[in-house]
Structure formats: structure tokens, C-alpha cells
Prior knowledge:
Blueprint: E1 6-8, E2 29-30, H1 53-56, E3 58-64, E4 70-80, E5 83-87, E6 101-104, E7 111-118, E8 123-128, E9 149-154, E10 163-171, E11 184-187, E12 199-201, E13 207-210, E14 213-217, E15 220-226, H2 232-240
Amino acid sequence: MSMGVFKKAFSATFAVIAAAALSLTLCYTIISKVVSGPDLENRPTVSVTGMSREQRASHMISYLDEDGKEKALCTATAIGPHALLTASHCNDGIRSKASTAIKIDYSAHHYSILAVTSDDRDHDIYLIDGPAFRYTVPLVQGVPKPDDSVRFYGFGEGVYPSTERDGKIFADEDPSDVDHAVQFFLFKIPVYHGDSGSAIYNQQGQVIGVVSYLVVWYGSEKMGAYALNFSPDRIETAQKFDPRDRTTYPQ
């Protein structure tokens, strides 16, 4: 594939996915074993009346540098009480020199990323410390299909709370020479800085990908994403993880 075809979509600072795969693809990479933080609310007081479960589970995450300053903004989805699904490129590939501290929504507390796993399709699952998320969605991986209606809930341009945007899948394959087995798909929905990492849902409420790519095709811009490819055991680990219970840590 020509590198000129794809550009990373809307990460604040980073534009390249770390290409190195995990030494054990079914395992989590342990980032930190430090559990810290008081039991703080994850977001400012916002009425959730009328919000869907998916929207309630969406969070704005800010990656912090060594001085605690925000260096990137993305969207993540709570798929377990202490687990987030987002895009790998948001943190420039956490297995390299990347942030292990994040802010969630407008909390003053800095959360630690304790472990991470990737499916090497620009999708990461973080296991984090801090208080449990009040609203979560089950990670049911769906298959993208042409003309399917899709939606996501992103924090584009830092607008809070998240906004719902919907559209349709434009095609079920990459117009270039990408391996079709990875189920790359295009969709036409307005996307803004900060939307990267938003879970993309189909009509059945299944997660079929996350906001990842801006695709330039015959002079027209489309959004692109890969289908999720996490193994069941990694999803189960994310759903059950509790930073206070060492027996739930990935082995």
C-alpha cells in the first residue's frame, strides 16, 4: 500500500502506529503494577438522561507527559469496570516510549495504565487503576458489512459530553492492496480531532472497529477502520480485571 494513501486521523501529536508486535500475541504487556488514586468520580456532573448505554460508556482521555501536561486527546470506551478500548495510534504505541498516565474526562486524578494488549489493527485495550466505571458496554465483536448503518460517540474538538454521529459503511474493502482478510472498511461520517479511538457500532450494537484512519480515495476523503480481532480470553480478562484483586491480573 502506498503510504500516501493513508494518514492517521486526528491524534493531537502522534501520527505513526508502532509496528512491533507483542512477543506473545495472546498476552497483555504489563506496564505498571502501581495502583493509586482516591475514589474519584470519573466525570463532571452531567445528566445522563436520554443517553444510550454506549454514549454513557464513552470517555474523553488525555495522555500526559512526564510533567503531567496533556499531550494528546482521544476517545475511549469502557468495556469493563477497569478496561478501556481505544486506538493504538492515540498513544503512539504504548509498548514503546509512550505515556502511561492518562486523565479521564475532567477528573483531576491521573490514572495509570497497568497493562495493554493490541490486536495489531490499531486497537488497544488498557487495564487501568482508579475507581470502577459506572457504565460499560460488552465488547461483542461484529463483522462490517457494506451499507450497514453505523454510529460512534466521540469527543471531537474536546466537546463534552460525547456526541453521536452516524452514517453507513461505504465499502467493505480497502481500495488499495491491503489484505482483505483483515476486514478493512470505509464509512462516511464527519470526524474531528479527538474522535480517534471511538468505538464504531453496527445496528446490532456490536463493535466493528474504532475510528482510526483518514482515507484519500480519488480525491475524496473517507474514514477507514479495521475490524476488531481480539481473542475471547483477552476480552474476558478486560471484563473481569480489578486492580485491587491480584488474581484478575493477566498472567
